[in-house]
Design goal:
The structure is a homodimer. Chain A has about 350 residues and is an alpha/beta fold. The first copy, chain A, contains 14 helices and ten strands. Chain A is globular, with a radius of gyration of 20 Å.
Chain lengths: ~350, ~350
């Protein structure tokens, strides 16, 4: 079944429509402590009319763990969820990933609907069927591929988002732009975070989600093409883990934005990716995201993290790189030496 | 992909063949403390040649839990498993269910092969893609549908099985016989546990597994027809849970054997199932399995357990019943009164 994705400025109406189309016997709503407070009230009437049971978990990626997961499983079971029940995941990627995994495994799978409340989850986590939790110090180490019955993407929750959250999500849109082609990419590089219209953002968002959707439709289980979506993520995940080990976590989107600088450098070194585009991108990131500080003392840890990435085999580092904007090459391997060189150039570009 | 099921008297050769056909980069073998000791040594050479990493968990259904699961996930991760690694589940249903779930969720899914070591798991758990663990006091509350790449069914491990284990597995074969038709069913009722040839058992086993296979192929996710395989299980699971709460657990197959007596009574009361066949079946169970003692004081607990069964909706009790041998009706609801009447008749038939 193709995943239904709804782009809307009227989230209440869209949710009512979705609930009408799905045959379920009991409704559950998963939020974290933030979305429970800031977003759930906007949908209170719909939830009340369906006699929904609310489940709230702690916020933040560090809580995307087995404790929160077992809490959701228990709440579902203790409140009479059956195989015909429906779970709505209302939150950022942490909630849609964990809630999607909880639903996919409760009684061997109940249906779920995602309502992303951050730009990042709207453009990335909520769409495409990746669910999971962090485990054993690794991000998304445990999970399954399973698509939500519907995803409702609305700018309504975005109005209240801090600018940092918008930027975090925008990084994935930049990635989709790099995968799509020069037109989309240039439109994104012209974006002004200090002065934008959320409705214009909804259009850009739809274009961006459709890039992901086309790729996922061809390769849902990441056997090949879907790895294109990992652009920036091998290095990005390593940055995230390093930041976590420094006890100063960074937003996922920022990690990807910086990770893409390194991976575009690798693309330049290995596939002759245009150095002008690389410089324009790096400048945009520097201006809007600042920099992630690393020294050469961090290289061994970063390389070890990249070798343990899910995408890697037997200790080889595996990247999705670009030979040009819109022209992806998956399964590129890179030696330690070339990765170290790319990290050196990253530090130059970022003026570290 | 259709699940490959191999019936063999040469388990080493078959395993070698399977490992040749699958492209993997690292082999893991999951056993419990029993199969690690009694069965793994028979395959030691194959495992050694593939440099397999062994993971051993505690035995028994009470250990089919989240602790054992996280132990398997950690061992996989800490020993370098990647998405291209392969897990062999060597054990009874507890090992194949839990190992199948661990493999299905580790890095969003790695491949696995089941080698059932009990008759019960050969005829039931190892085939058909149900994986999972017990949670929150409920059997198989958490899991996914996902088929093993291959299942190797051999009588080799069966030679060492205690008679109780043979009987436990045989109950599922009786179920398949009831679903298939009178010929198969009568062949099974003529079986002599005190005097049988394991090779003859392999033939019966293949016939039995094929009944399940045909049903699962039509309805892998238990939307309809597959519920036929729940014959005996709504009551059987309730008996198992009751026995567990009495701190004297009963084997799953025995619970199903007794559960089928109750459900054949229900079939007789609701669908006019032949009373002669019911009596012959009840006599066979009484003679070979003994009885599971209940009094009318147990009825409320049993009924509450049946209402919480995964197959049930909103507190209705749901059964798969027979109008005749070979003629199943799924989604039969029954009132508390008729279930109590059936439990009364069960006690009569069992001479309790």
């Amino acid at each position: 079944m193709a995943q239904k994705i709804i782009f809307t400025n009227d989230i209440n109406n869209s949710l009512n429509q979705v609930l009408e189309d799905i045959d379920f016997n009991k409704l559950f709503v998963l939020t974290d402590v933030n979305t429970s407070h800031y977003v759930a009230p906007k949908l209170a009437e719909v939830f009340y009319n369906h006699n929904a049971t609310h489940i709230t978990i702690p916020a933040g990626d560090t809580n995307k763990n087995i404790d929160s997961l077992t809490q959701v499983w228990s709440k579902l079971g203790n409140n009479g969820a059956t195989r015909r029940s429906l779970l709505i995941n209302l939150g950022g990627g942490m909630v849609t990933d964990l809630g999607g995994f909880a639903a996919s495994t409760f009684k061997r799978g109940i249906r779920f609907v995602n309502i992303p409340t951050t730009l990042l989850s709207a453009v990335d986590a909520a769409v495409g069927g990746k669910t999971g939790i962090n485990f054993n110090g690794l991000k998304n180490e445990i999970g399954v591929f399973n698509e939500a019955d519907a995803v409702i993407i609305s700018t309504t929750p975005l109005y209240t988002l801090p600018k940092e959250e918008i930027k975090s999500g925008f990084a994935e849109m930049l990635k989709h732009g790099l995968l799509k082609g020069k037109d989309t990419f240039n439109k994104l590089l012209a974006f002004d975070f200090d002065n934008f219209n959320p409705d214009h953002l909804l259009d850009l968002l739809e274009e961006s989600v459709n890039v992901k959707r086309e790729i996922v439709a061809i390769d849902p289980h990441e056997k090949g093409l879907r790895r294109a979506l990992n652009l920036g993520h091998t290095v990005g995940h390593a940055f995230e883990s390093l930041a976590m080990s420094r006890k100063s976590p960074i937003p996922h989107g920022y990690a990807v934005a910086w990770g893409m600088v390194v991976e575009l450098v690798l693309s330049h070194l290995i596939l002759k990716f245009d150095s002008d585009v690389l410089h324009r991108y790096a400048q945009f990131i520097c201006d809007n995201y600042g920099v992630f500080y690393i020294t050469c003392n961090d290289y061994p840890a970063l390389i070890s993290l990249m070798k343990h990435d899910k995408k890697s085999n037997c200790g080889e580092m595996n990247f999705s790189l670009l030979s040009d904007v819109g022209d992806i090459k998956i399964n590129c391997e890179a030696s330690e030496e070339i990765v170290e060189a790319a990290l050196d150039i990253y530090r130059d570009l970022m003026h570290i």
